[in-house]
Write a structure and sequence with these properties.
Distance between the termini: 51 Å
Structural class: alpha/beta
CATH class: Alpha Beta
Number of strands: 11
Number of domains: 1
Order of helices and strands: EEHEHEEEHEEEHHEHEHH
CATH superfamily: Vaccinia Virus protein VP39
Strand content: 15-25%
Shape: globular
Helix content: 10-25%
Strand order of the largest sheet: 1-2-11-10-3-4-8-7-9
Bound molecules: S-adenosylmethionine
Number of helices: 8
């Protein structure tokens, strides 16, 4: 593996020279002590207030007030040419859904953050709803602090579907119309959360079979954050995840030769983060490679066949 740092310098206190800083405690308290105008990318999936083991459920109003105080601090510490990517899903109350990006937008806007994309992160699996359509996407709100911001489109281009297309009019008539580096990945990202989506679901306990699976109930696929890191920062820039969990954002940053800070209130998640960084260093961390195509079932896999109990008599005879 091509690593920038042979051994990452990891500290559990703020240090300008560290590759990875792990901070344990309440995020708001910690953010207040971090330097202004510093982080090129702040990326996180905040708790959604839906009663996961690491959160205490409160009213939506109270939750948003708390989040607003955090986002104010994030505005202060964000680099002048930096970005914030806030990854959210739905808050659910009594079967009614409240898409959190709708509630977060005015909070960011009030601080004069500028929305650049509302990215749909689509995944092909999840819980099957019975009283509404099953939810299959979450949102990444990408804001910048100012109008001057880092955006490296070429580093995240994806293969074009029709690279052979040519201009049929204008000055460039007859010349290829696309970009040899590929096309813009658009604001619709299909990045799998786990191997459930790969169709290999006859392996028992598939969730724990996923290469990136850790003890955390909802960690980021590293690939999702790598795309943000590559597009929105340059080598050696600082990336911060204020609700870092098991350090997926930090891993994405280190993997792409950036430095990072990860904050979490749970000691166990910081310990797992450390362990994952060591595995990244020695090349044993299992990560889905960025850009790996999503598996398309061929129809021959056992799981893509109609169960025999559902077949009609004449179909079984065939
Ligand atoms: C949605 S998870 C983030 C998971 C992360 N994206 C990853 O890939 O592992 C939210 C995290 O926020 C942490 N958290 C919740 N409230 C917090 C607080 N007040 N201060 C610091 N961390 C907090 C939780 O322990 C949890 O790990």
């Amino acid at each position: 593996m091509d690593l920038f740092f042979e051994h990452y310098k990891i500290t559990e206190y703020y240090d300008n020279n560290s590759d990875a800083v792990l901070l344990e405690g309440d995020t708001l308290d910690i953010l207040k002590k971090l330097p202004s105008n510093t982080y090129k990318l702040i990326v996180s999936s905040p708790p959604y207030n839906i009663g996961k083991i690491y959160e205490e459920e409160v009213s939506l109003e109270k939750y948003l007030e708390w989040q607003e105080s955090i986002i104010c601090e994030l505005f202060r510490i964000c680099h002048m040419n930096g970005s914030i990517v806030w990854q959210v899903g739905n808050y659910v109350d009594n079967g009614e859904i409240f898409p959190l990006d709708i509630y977060f937008y005015p909070i960011f806007k009030k601080l004069e953050f500028k929305l650049r994309n509302r990215i749909i992160w689509h995944f092909g699996h999840g819980l099957h709803a019975s009283k509404r359509f099953s939810g299959r996407y979450e949102v990444l709100l990408w804001f910048t602090k100012s109008n001057e911001y880092t955006f490296n489109l070429d580093s995240v281009r994806v293969p074009s579907k029709y690279p052979g297309k040519r201009n049929y009019k204008g000055n460039n008539i007859g010349k290829p119309s696309g970009n040899p580096l590929g096309k813009n990945p658009s604001d619709f990202w299909e990045i799998i959360t786990d191997e459930w989506n790969s169709g290999i679901i006859d392996i028992p306990n598939v969730k724990s079979n996923h290469p990136e699976k850790t003890q955390h109930p909802c960690s980021f696929p590293i690939e999702l954050i790598e795309r943000c890191v590559l597009a929105l920062t340059n080598e050696n820039d600082l990336v911060l995840d204020p609700f870092g969990g098991v350090g997926s954002s930090l891993i994405a940053a280190l993997k792409q030769k950036r430095r990072g800070v990860s904050i979490d209130k749970e000691r166990i998640y910081l310990d797992i983060t450390r362990e994952r960084i060591s595995k990244l260093e020695n090349g044993s961390l299992k990560i889905r490679k960025i850009g790996t195509p999503i598996f398309e079932p061929t129809g021959r896999e056992k799981v893509s066949q109609i169960p025999v109990e559902w077949l009609k008599k004449e179909e079984i005879a065939l």
